Amino acid sequence: MRVVVVGCGYVGLALAGQLGERGHDVTGVRRSDAGLDAVEAVGPDVEPLRADATDPESLSALPDADAVVFAASSGGRGADAAREVYVDGLANVVDEYSSRAASPDRLVYTSSTGVYGDHDGGWVYEETPVDPTTEKTRVLAEAERIATERASEAGIDGTVVRFAGLYGPERHRLERYVEGPVTAGYLNMIHRDDAAGSIRHLLEANRARDRAVLVVDDEPVDKHAFADWLADACGVPRPEKLSKDERIAAGDLSAAAERRIRTSKRCSNALLRELGYEFVHPTFRSGYRDAVRAYRARTE
């Protein structure tokens, strides 16, 4: 299978490595020298290529492919930057491939569980209506429509993978929880290796065409309970805990940050399990094991 990973960053690099190791023809697309170096470091099975989704002219360099994965990031910037990358950039990629004699069979777009908005701690599933509550999540929801509707018009089957909170190497943010204070709510998480593995599985097993899939581990967890588990595992005192009202009453949050704190839900991975994916890290207990060891080694 020929796969092009546009925006071959945190998840994309892991995906490219997994696909390359299994004999697929993989191209990792980045726009900077540092990004291309990171793709090259994945190994000889992955070809680095310079292009920029926000620059349509550069996309003519993209090779033909059986599947395209759009995993670009806006770099944590605001809604305008997100729109430029996720909406305009994704549309540029779809348009480039739709103009060719041989278009890809599939497109996978990496979205976020943030598109569901607030459910007061209730469960959400793929069928739960999307209800984004911030400018950035509204942009993500718009990009999902491009990945399905616009791609379909081009004869490409689109799949939307909605990632829960990503963590893994260099992104465990362990100190934030063991030092506190920790605000109440639920954590929905997915280890980077499983985020990448889920896409690999959906491509190889030819599953979830023309639909969305929640990519989250087996155990959405109460933040206070997670912080206590992590502190105990690290051998440090349990951190201070705050209710949502207590955190908001401090008065130092932006409007967007306050909306995030008020947003609470538990995301189900029942469909991903039904589709046959086997997790490397079914829960945070496995996924944080190495980070806990490293923390203890630094502090003991």
Structure summarized in a few sentences:
This protein has about 300 residues and is an alpha/beta fold. Helix content is about 40%, strand content about 20%. The longest helix is centred in the N-terminal third of the chain and has 20 residues, at about 80-100.
Order of helices and strands: EHEHEEHEEHEEHEEEHEEHEHHEHHH
The named CATH superfamily: NAD(P)-binding Rossmann-like Domain
% residues in beta strands = 15-25%
Q: What oligomeric state do these chains adopt? A: single chain
Q: Helicity range of the residues?
A: 40-55%
Name of the level-1 CATH class: Alpha Beta
CATH topology: Rossmann fold
Q: Strand arrangement, largest sheet?
A: 3-2-1-4-5-7-12
Written account of the structure:
The protein has one domain: NAD(P)-binding Rossmann-like Domain (Rossmann fold), CATH 3.40.50.720. The protein is 42% helix and 19% strand. The protein has helices spanning 10-21, 33-42, 79-98, 135-153, 174-179, 192-204, 223-234, 244-249, 255-262, 270-274, 284-287, 289-299, and strands spanning 2-6, 25-30, 46-50, 67-70, 106-112, 123-124, 157-163, 165-167, 182-183, 186-187, 189-191, 211-215, 221-222, 241-242, 266-267. The strands form five sheets. A seven-stranded parallel sheet has the order 3-2-1-4-5-7-12, sandwiched between helices. A two-stranded parallel sheet has the order 6-15. The longest helix is centred in the N-terminal third of the chain and has 20 residues, at 79-98. It is globular, with a radius of gyration of 19 Å. The mean pLDDT is 96.
